[in-house]
Amino acid sequence: MKIYDVVVVGSGASGGWVAKELTEQGMEVLMVEAGPPRIPTRDFTEHVWPYQLKFRGFGDQKALLENQPVQWSGGGKHKCVRI
């Protein structure tokens, strides 16, 4: 049976970074992940054109425009304001 120095649960932004840092220091790292396998072309929509999104244009557009928060940076502080 193999013995690991560290077990990282989840390969998200934090888990992936921790695993990278620890392996670079020479530790034996086991990473476990829950959930189904991800297929980038199917599961991630960050880098597609807006017209390729399945539910683009659905919902109450008027309510969205009236209640959509806008981030504003003033004096080094970030605030969400409604316009």
Set out the fold topology.
Elements lengths: L5 E4 L3 H12 L4 E4 L7 H4 L17 H7 L1 E6 L2 E6 L1
Parallel strand pairs: 1-2
Antiparallel strand pairs: 3-4
Brief synopsis:
The protein has 83 residues and is α+β, with helices and mostly antiparallel strands. The chain is built from 3 helices and 4 strands, in the order βαβααββ. The model has no long low-confidence stretch (mean pLDDT 78).
Structure overview:
The chain is of the alpha+beta class. It has one domain. Helices cover 28% and strands 24% of the residues. It contains 3 helices and 4 strands. The strands form 2 sheets. Strands 1-2 form a two-stranded parallel ribbon. Strands 3-4 form a two-stranded antiparallel ribbon. β1 (6-9), α1 (13-24) and β2 form a beta-alpha-beta unit. The mean pLDDT is 78.
Question: What distinguishing features does this structure have?
Answer:
single chain; 83 residues; alpha+beta; two-stranded parallel ribbon; elongated
**Total of helices:** 3
Question: What is the number of domains?
Answer: 1
Quaternary state of the chains: single chain
How would you spell out the order of helices and strands? EHEHHEE
Overall outline: elongated
Q: Mean pLDDT, nearest integer? A: 78
Helix content: 25-40%
Number of strands: 4
